[in-house]
Design brief:
The protein contains five helices and five strands; from the N terminus they run E-H-E-H-E-H-E-H-E-H. It is of the alpha/beta class. It has one domain: Response regulator (Rossmann fold, 3-Layer(aba) Sandwich). It has a five-stranded parallel beta sheet with strand order 2-1-3-4-5, with helices on both faces.
Length: 142
């Protein structure tokens, strides 16, 4: 789960339901990840992600406010490079297709079980390690 020097991966949580946000925060922390912050709206999230630069963003698809989770990820990626795990209360295929357009590592349905979140974070961890390895290899090749 950890990268070089055992530094925990950093996570940012976007969830407009306070109770769910607290539960997800505790789950993520209990799995050994560092939660850098959270936001209730997409607008707030974009600004915080820009300044905090997390490695992983966990976001609800449906958010209160102007932007949904998918639009939030699209806008935040203009300022920060991170991987996404979407969380949705709906199994709506059209939502999942829209999420695919911005890209994600995992798309979880609520209620999120700890084992599913752990698997999604581990999958993201493997992706980030592989990506970091490719980056290091390209530096060596230059």
């Amino acid at each position: 789960m950890n990268d070089l020097k055992n530094k925990p991966r950093t996570v940012f949580i976007i969830e407009d339901n306070l109770v769910l946000s607290m539960i997800i925060n505790r789950l993520v922390t209990s799995l050994g990840y560092e939660v850098l912050g959270d936001a209730k709206s997409g607008e707030d999230a974009v600004e915080k992600i820009k300044s905090l630069n997390p490695e992983i963003v966990l976001t609800d698809v449906r958010l209160d406010g102007v932007m949904n989770g998918i639009e939030t990820v699209k806008n935040a990626r203009m300022h920060s490079d991170f991987q996404t795990i979407f969380i949705s209360g709906s199994a709506d295929d059209s939502e999942r297709l829209k999420a695919e357009q911005v890209g994600y590592i995992e798309y979880l349905l609520k209620p999120v079980r700890k084992v599913d979140l752990a698997n999604a974070l581990q999958k993201t961890e493997k992706y980030l390690r592989k990506k970091m390895g490719k980056s290091a290899m390209s530096l060596v090749a230059e």
